[in-house]
Structures are given as structure tokens and as C-alpha cells.
Amino acid sequence: CVLLLVGVATGILWQRTVAGRHLFALGRNEEAARFAGVRTGLLTMMSYVACSALAGLGGCLFVLDVNSAQASSFGNFYELYAIAGAVLGGVALRGGEGVVLGVVLGAALMQLLSNTINLLGDSNQLEFAVVGAVILFGAGFDEVVRRFFSAKGPAGSGR
């Protein structure tokens, strides 16, 4: 229920509002967004606030899931899972591109990979290696796509 609410709210923000278009412009090229009249400082600050609020919500849900909280090592390496899930979901590492449904599906796929590795073998090192490989291949694929579209040039340019 919480995932659905956050996903729908984020999708509406990203696709249906001026602030969402400004956010994607900021992610693509901050300087160009500033020259286009986007208040990049305020938008960056609000993005960090929203990210922190969602991280707090995620932490609360995580504590409710496992019924305990330990400050020393609770949630180690979860940032890698988040990055890998976003990469699998089609979010560009260079910024300015992404779809909420892709992020949700990428996160679900990362959970599926994690559960599969835990069922096949009891090695955390294998799980970290798979997550690292997903990020590596996602970054490589992102770079290949970027080079393909930059070489292709704008539509109708005669190239």
C-alpha cells in the first residue's frame, strides 16, 4: 500500500508537473537548467529533503519488518541495492532519465535476485558480487546507449 502511494505520487510529480520537468532538466544538465530559468539551488535542496524523507519512511518500514533496530550495522550495503535496482529499472546514471514503474520493477528484480542467491547458496559475498555486476553492466549499457544517441545526432539533422 505504501509502495503504491509513493509510486503514484512520484509518478505524478515526475510526469505531470512543471517541478518534475525541472527536476529532470536539473538531472540532465544543471548549468543548462539554470540558464533556462530553473531555480536550481532551491530544487536541489528540495530534492535532498524529499530523498531524506523517503529514506526515513523506508527506515521506518524496515524496522517494522524486522521488529528491531540496531545502529551499528543495520541496513549495510542497502544503497548498492538501491542503485542496482534503479539501474535495472532504466534510470540513467548520468541523470535526467527514468520512469517510476521501471524503478519499482528494478527494485523487485533486485529482491528476486537476492532471494534466489540466498536459496542457491548461503554466501553474502556472492550476493555482493551479483549486485556489483548488475551495477557494472548497467553502467556499461548506459554508456553504450549514451554514445549511440550522441553519435546519431538530433532527428532530421541529415546524418
| Uncertain residue ranges | none
Strand content: under 5%
Name the average pLDDT: 84
Class by SSE composition = mainly alpha
Count of runs of 4 or more consecutive helical residues: 7
Order of helices and strands: HHHHHHH
Largest sheet: none
Q: In angstroms, what separates the terminal alpha carbons?
A: 48 Å
Helicity level, as a percent range?
over 70%
Net shape: globular
Radius of gyration: 18 Å
Q: How many strand elements?
A: 0
Describe this entry's structure for a reader.
There is one protein chain. The longest helix is centred in the C-terminal third of the chain and has 29 residues, at 124-152. The mean pLDDT is 84. The N and C termini lie far apart (48 Å). α1 (2-16) packs across α2 (18-28) and α2 (18-28) packs across α4 (40-66). With 159 residues, this protein is mostly helical. It is built from seven helices and no strands.
Give short descriptive properties of this protein.
mainly alpha; single chain; 159 residues
